[in-house]
Write a structure and sequence with these properties.
Number of helices: 3
Strand order of the largest sheet: 3-4-5-9-8-7-6
Helix content: 25-40%
CATH topology: Protein Transport Mog1p, Chain A
Shape: globular
CATH architecture: 3-Layer(aba) Sandwich
Radius of gyration: 16 Å
Distance between the termini: 56 Å
Strand content: 35-45%
Structural class: alpha+beta
Number of domains: 1
């Protein structure tokens, strides 16, 4: 009986782990980057990335989000920029278009997802890491974040 109770508590924690009740727009003033972020999930500041932006994490530390803009003074295409980043082998999903790229994979039971949009001398990115076991619960959150990424 005790094992069943523990399993139910774990399942409920997983189901609520990626529920985003309130959203806000995070904006990088220097670059015009903006993105919707679930404030109800990413409650803690977790440092500054390279370039401009902010890193966030969930209060339990199981997931994190980086919103970042870096200079693209060399005018690299999404494909060339991605190649310079030397992404790890084993990428599960990769899409490269004329003005953005998306890559995603799993590393040590964690899904990592990177989307970068290219405009006006900057690369505007969101990088999200979350438990692979909670993929279904995170799908809508990741999709909204990704689709909302823009630059003025």
């Amino acid at each position: 009986m005790r094992t069943t109770s523990v399993a139910i508590v774990a399942m409920l924690a997983t189901l609520s782990a990626a529920q985003a009740d309130s959203w806000t727009t995070y904006r990088i003033a220097e670059t015009g980057t903006s993105v919707d972020i679930p404030a109800s999930l990413f409650k803690e500041m977790a440092g500054k990335p390279d370039g401009y932006g902010q890193q966030f994490r969930t209060s339990d530390g199981r997931a994190d989000l980086t919103v970042q803009a870096v200079s693209n003074g060399q005018g690299l295409s999404p494909a060339a920029f991605l190649a310079r980043k030397s992404p790890p082998s084993g990428i599960i999903y990769k899409r490269v278009a004329p003005n953005f790229f998306v890559v995603s994979s799993i590393k040590r039971d964690t899904i990592w997802y990177d989307r970068c949009n290219f405009s006006r001398g900057y690369v505007h990115c969101v990088l999200i890491n979350y438990p692979a076991a909670e993929k279904r619960q995170w799908d809508r959150v990741v999709t909204r974040i990704s689709h909302s990424l823009s630059a003025d």
